[in-house]
Amino acid sequence: MCGVLGFNIFASMKKFLANVGLGLMGWKVKNDLDTDNVHSCVLVCGPHTSNWDFVVTILAFWKMGIPMKLFIKDDWTKPWYGFVIKWLGGIGVDRSQRQNLTDYAASLFKESNERLYLVNTPEGTRKWVEKWKKGFYYIAQKGEVPILFAYADYERKQAGISAMTDPARYSLEEVLQQAEDFYKNVTPHTPENFNPNIR
């Protein structure tokens, strides 16, 4: 009972902070999917060209009540302030074990009964990249969960989740094409840092 109450309090707090933050910045949230029917997924976020992307999308997820999590160096979750990082959705991992990260992520989906929206930024950096990293696809495939596409459009000042795909149905190349078609219509914070040809 106390655990549920605590969760509801934190969820309400996050939603309040999201409403205030997004309101002050003049952003709107638009969710084109019925995420209530999506138990868990890999949540792809793009374009990723600025630190502001993190702020805007996290606030948008909080407002939508999205149970998002993201991998972060365990150096950030071990110190005294680690509880704050975890509250923000951070899952501490040893980045030196990269070869096992996909399997670890997949196991989180399979072993937990809780809803899990695992955030992934396939560009891997805020700078211009030649192509996307493919880990998000293999995590979703092994974890047997769909892939949702989230965005932050700086021209419209609108953020949300607007598309979904299934790695059990579509090949890597097909999913990358779907992502390319989706994100080409999104205006990033720093356009010169975004390569729309993600394949």
Largest sheet: 7 strands, mixed
Return residue spans where pLDDT drops below 50 for at least 5 consecutive residues. Answer: 1-6
The separation of the N and C termini measures 48 Å
What oligomeric state is this?
A: single chain
Order of H and E elements: HEEHEHEHEHEEH
Dominant shape: globular
Helix count equals 6
Strand content: 15-25%
- What's the gyration radius in Å? 16 Å
Derived from helix and strand composition plus strand pairing, the structural class reads alpha/beta
Helix fraction, binned, reads: 25-40%
- The averaged pLDDT comes out at 87
Task: Find the count of extended strands (DSSP E, 2+ residues).
Answer: 7
In the sheet with the most strands, the strands line up as 1-7-6-2-5-3-4
How would you explain this protein's 3D organization?
By secondary structure, this protein is of the alpha/beta class. It contains 6 helices and 7 strands. The protein has a 7-stranded mixed β-sheet with strand order 1-7-6-2-5-3-4, with helices on both faces. Helix 1 (2-25) packs across helix 2 and helix 4 runs parallel beside helix 5. The relative contact order is 0.20. Residues 1-6 have low confidence and may be disordered.
Indicate the topology.
Blueprint: H1 2-25, E1 28-31, E2 40-46, H2 52-64, E3 68-73, H3 82-87, E4 90-93, H4 98-111, E5 116-120, H5 135-143, E6 147-153, E7 158-165, H6 172-183
Parallel strand pairs: 1-7, 2-5, 2-6, 3-4, 3-5
Antiparallel strand pairs: 6-7
Helix pairs in contact: 1-2, 4-5
